[in-house]
């Protein structure tokens, strides 16, 4: 495949190699062919379909092998809990996560996942979620996602200062966590701390220039501190992003 010059031949060769490797259970060869297809033909519908189908099949095979070779391992139990969670079967997922904690009370991410379930339930149970997320941070103080979820919980309850503190910590733990900067800016705007909101929102719009929410929030902060020209610029960028998004949806 790598030495093939013609695009059509390369495409066909890679497709055939992926299919043959999958049928022979040669995962490494299959992945090499899939990566070539993804690199060379990233927008081809058949390639995208094949990637989705074969990667899903590879994941299924790996999970079956994990269940066969280490059925009682925390990894296998976590995978089963995640399956229940994906199905929305909260009670079974929680029971499975609790089982993992009984075996190892210091297992990372488990309290975080329990907290996420409490927030996903109908109705949500924010108080229980906060307890689990705080427990996660005792085990892993570097978990930016747990900090973010604590911030979201506080924000939904109108506790702007508490939310901002959590979002700020999340952004420091993971400097590439774009959503944390937006949430921080929104919380600060809601708290009336417009000058403080500008820096995280400026960071966010640089990371996500097509997101209209970022431009709106930054424009609001600029306007409230008297930076009229910059506020108008953000409103214009918001309009442009909206127009481009609508155009992409039509296509």
Describe the protein.
With about 250 residues, the protein is mostly helical. It folds into 3 domains: about 1-70; about 70-140, Tetratricopeptide repeat domain (Serine Threonine Protein Phosphatase 5, Tetratricopeptide repeat, Alpha Horseshoe), CATH 1.25.40; about 155-250, Serine Threonine Protein Phosphatase 5, Tetratricopeptide repeat (Alpha Horseshoe), CATH 1.25.40.10. About 80% of the residues lie in helices and about 0% in strands. The protein contains 13 helices and no strands. The protein has helices at about 5-25, 25-40, 45-70, 75-85, 90-105, 110-120, 125-140, 145-155, 160-175, 180-190, 195-205, 210-225, 230-250. Helix 11 runs antiparallel to helix 12. The longest helix has 25 residues, at about 45-70. It is flat. The mean pLDDT is about 90.
SSE succession = HHHHHHHHHHHHH
Biggest pleated-sheet summary: none
Query: From the helix content, strand content and strand pairing, which structural class follows?
Result: mainly alpha
Q: Return the domain count.
A: 3
What is the CATH first-level class name of the largest domain?
A: Mainly Alpha
Please, what is the average pLDDT? 91
How big a fraction of the residues is strand? Answer: under 5%
Distance between the termini: 33 Å
Unreliable spans are none
Helix content: over 70%
* Rg computed from alpha carbons, rounded to a whole number of angstroms: 23 Å
Number of strands: 0
Q: Can you tell me the CATH architecture of the largest domain?
A: Alpha Horseshoe
What is the name of the CATH superfamily of the largest domain?
Tetratricopeptide repeat domain
User: Would you give the CATH topology of the largest domain?
Assistant: Serine Threonine Protein Phosphatase 5, Tetratricopeptide repeat
Shape: flat
Number of helices: 13
């Amino acid at each position: 495949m790598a030495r093939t010059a013609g695009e059509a031949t390369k495409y066909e060769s890679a497709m055939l190699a992926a299919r043959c490797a999958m049928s022979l259970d040669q995962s490494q060869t299959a992945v090499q062919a899939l990566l070539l297809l993804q690199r060379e033909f990233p927008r081809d519908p058949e390639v995208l379909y094949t990637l989705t189908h074969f990667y899903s099949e590879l994941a299924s095979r790996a999970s079956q092998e994990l269940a066969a070779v280490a059925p009682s391992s925390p990894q296998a139990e976590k995978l089963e809990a995640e399956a229940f969670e994906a199905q929305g079967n909260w009670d079974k997922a929680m029971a499975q996560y609790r089982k993992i904690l009984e075996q190892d009370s210091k297992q990372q991410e488990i309290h975080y996942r329990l907290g996420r379930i409490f927030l996903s339930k109908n109705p949500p149970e924010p108080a229980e979620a906060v307890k689990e997320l705080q427990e996660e941070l005792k085990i892993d103080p570097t978990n930016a996602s747990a900090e973010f979820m604590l911030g979201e919980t506080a924000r939904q309850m109108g506790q702007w200062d508490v939310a901002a503190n959590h979002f700020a910590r999340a952004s420091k733990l993971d400097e590439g966590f774009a959503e944390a900067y937006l949430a921080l800016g929104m919380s600060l705007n809601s708290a009336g701390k417009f000058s403080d909101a500008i820096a995280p929102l400026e960071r966010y719009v640089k990371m996500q220039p097509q997101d209209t929410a970022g431009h709106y929030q930054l424009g609001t902060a600029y306007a409230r501190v008297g930076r009229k020209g910059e506020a108008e610029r953000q409103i214009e960028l918001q309009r442009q992003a909206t127009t481009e998004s609508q155009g992409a949806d039509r296509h």
